[in-house]
Structures are given as C-alpha cells and as structure tokens.
Amino acid sequence: MAKPEMEIQNVDHIPWRPVAGGGVSGAGAYEKILSMDPETGNYTRLLKVEAGVETTEVLSHDVWEEIYIIEGKYTDKGKNITITSGMYGCRPPGMKHGPYSFHEKSLMLEMRYRTP
Description:
Helix content is 0%, strand content 41%. It contains no helices and nine strands. It has a domain of 74 residues: Sandwich (Jelly Rolls), CATH 2.60.120. The chain is mainly β.
C-alpha cells in the first residue's frame, strides 16, 4: 500500500500530538501527520517546536528526510549552524544532525521515506 490519495484540503482537523523521541519526548514538540504509508512508515508531517526547547540527542535515521522550515529560528548545536525560515535540507540515511536549541517557535514540513 502507498500513502492514501488526498485532494487538497484544510488540515485543521488533524490533531497535534506530542513527539516521542529525539531527546524531546513531547516537551514542547508536536507533530501533525499529514499522510503515512502504514507498510513502509513513509510519512509527511508538520513539526512544531516551542521556543526554549533544547534537544539532547544526535539524530541519524535509516530513511531519507527532507525538511523545509516554514517559520522560526533554531540552532543545530552539533554543526554550529543557525536554521531559519525558508531553509531546506535533504538528509540521506545515516546523516547526523542535532542536538537542537530552539530560539523561536518553529514550524517545519518534513518528509521521511525509504527508497527501494
């Protein structure tokens, strides 16, 4: 099965839920899953993180991750770079990133997927 077909729609009805993992475990980080393939785990989500949140883990995934920053400002403490709205990243499996320090409330669009 693939992600379900969806026509353009308002996503206000999809609830925000606390994020588990990534050194945050719901303390000021929330996700809204927009679509998901239950077989592969591929998904698209909105990720919202409150100002002042500090994560503790260096992250590395076994999937591709693409991320676009819609609003906010935060720092990747491991790479010593500041990330702001309008920025985009494409991380192959195994690419390390984080931990993070969020200076402003931040909103990101994130896609994670496996390739054959």
